[in-house]
Amino acid sequence: MIRRNSIILDDRGTALVVIILVLLALTGLVMGLSRVSVNETQLAANEILDKQVFYLAEAGAEKGIEYLSQLSVPFVGSGANHDQPALLFNNVSLYNKGRITCYLDPLDSNTGNPTRFVAVNVRATLNGTGLTKCLQVKVGQQNFSRYAYFSDMEKSPSGSTIWFVTRDVFYGPVHTNDQMHIYGSPTFYDEVSSAASSIDYYHGGPPQDDPQFKAGLTLNASTIPLPANTNMLLNKANESGGLKLTGNPVRIRFKVDASEHPFLRVTINGTTTDMNYPSNGVIYVNGKAQVEGVVKGQVTVGCDGDIEIMDNLTYYTDPRVDPTSTDLLGLVAERNVYMDGSTSGPNYDSADETIMAAIMALNTSWTVENYNHGTPRGKLIVYGGIIQKQRGPVGTFNSYTGQIVTGYEKDYSFDARLLDSPPPAFPTTGQIEKIAWIELDPSTDISVNFW
């Protein structure tokens, strides 16, 4: 009996030891799981904080982009050459979540080499954590100079319908806020967009009307409003480095001397004066401007009246021959931009005319004076782009034969440099294109130029 009881006690002891060992193992497992759970919770919390500071930085970048979208002219940076990052806001509170700093960094000098590209550099720090994120968002300010052809209305100021005809060939983007009117087979080699839902065909459509949209056609496109006035250029002309002239008219002849130095020969009220180009590239005329000559460098002429082109207006270095040319001209009139079209007297021209410029007529048109008088004059060669409120005529044609009757035959080519390099202070559309973004090291100095 005693031996049996002893055996029973030994078995119970063994069972107790096993139970204790199991409990210890379970306790260790629970503690291990608890530690894992705590670690996972901490990781999850850290991930949430990391996302919060990232979203804060993104919000700061959007603030910078919103600022750019409200500019009526291309952004220029700080420094003597306007090519250094400019502080937009410094350590400001955002949504009571943290503080942000933002610098806007132009790709290059907007004076010596106009550009539409800007880097939005942002540093964000989350409240109560010290967590910091730095972001760079590269954007493009969309400029009206990107259009080979742009119109707000596709009828003339007199209400006449103006047609795209067979001999019309367009290279570069085309947009109208109105309906396009097609006669025959005009050719468009780049993107075409219209805010209208359909096209008006002279003959009802193909086969007689068969436009060639080589890069496609977008109907029901968003309307892009034109600026209401030229105040953005007046402001630039009033800045140090700008040039403001008053007269009716002010005659500006672009000249290049024997030493290849560009200058302006300006005539006002019978008095002629030679002047240097303004350092910021902006000339503004109160009154009517008359322009002609050879442009060397980058310049924009703004005007609160009409701009009349008196004769050929070309670049010193022809970009059609030498694509490295940096010569650029913008013409922005609050009223019309038109080609002198005298049918008698010393200004009468029956030969071809060449204009190299981004042309913008806010109220109302790019046109030719006396376009419906006389006989055909030749070709009107425009190398650049045309932006206008209402489409203006440059000649008339026979609706049966399509032949020019009066005025000029159009020979328009787009200056592809204008896609990315607008003339100084040439108006922007207010639309921003996001090109790329990158997360920078938190220690990055976002105030330095590192494009």
Which terms would index this structure?
451 residues, 17-stranded mixed β-sheet, five-stranded antiparallel β-sheet, disordered N terminus
Secondary structure elements and their pairing?
Blueprint (H helix, E strand, L loop, with lengths): L1 H68 L16 E9 L3 E9 L10 E10 L5 E12 L5 E5 L10 E2 L3 E2 L3 E3 L4 E3 L3 E2 L3 E3 L5 E2 L10 E2 L3 E2 L12 H8 L4 E14 L5 E7 L2 E5 L6 E14 L2 E6 L3 E9 L12 E6 L3 E3 L13 E9 L4 E3 L7 E15 L4 E3 L6 E11 L13 E13 L11
Parallel strand pairs: 5-8, 5-25, 6-9, 7-10, 8-11, 9-12, 10-13, 11-14, 15-18, 18-19, 18-20, 19-21, 20-22, 21-23, 22-24, 23-25, 25-27
Antiparallel strand pairs: 1-2, 2-3, 3-4, 4-28, 15-16, 16-17, 26-27
Largest sheet: 17 strands, mixed
Beta-strand fraction estimate: 35-45%
Number of helices: 2
- Radius of gyration, taken over Cα atoms and rounded to an integer in Å: 33 Å
Q: What structural class do you assign from the helix and strand content?
A: alpha/beta
- Average per-residue pLDDT, rounded, comes to 88
How many angstroms separate the termini? 95 Å
Note poorly predicted spans. 1-9, 109-113
Shape: elongated
Report the count of strand segments: 28
Percent of residues in helical segments?
A: 10-25%
String of helices and strands: HEEEEEEEEEEEEEEHEEEEEEEEEEEEEE
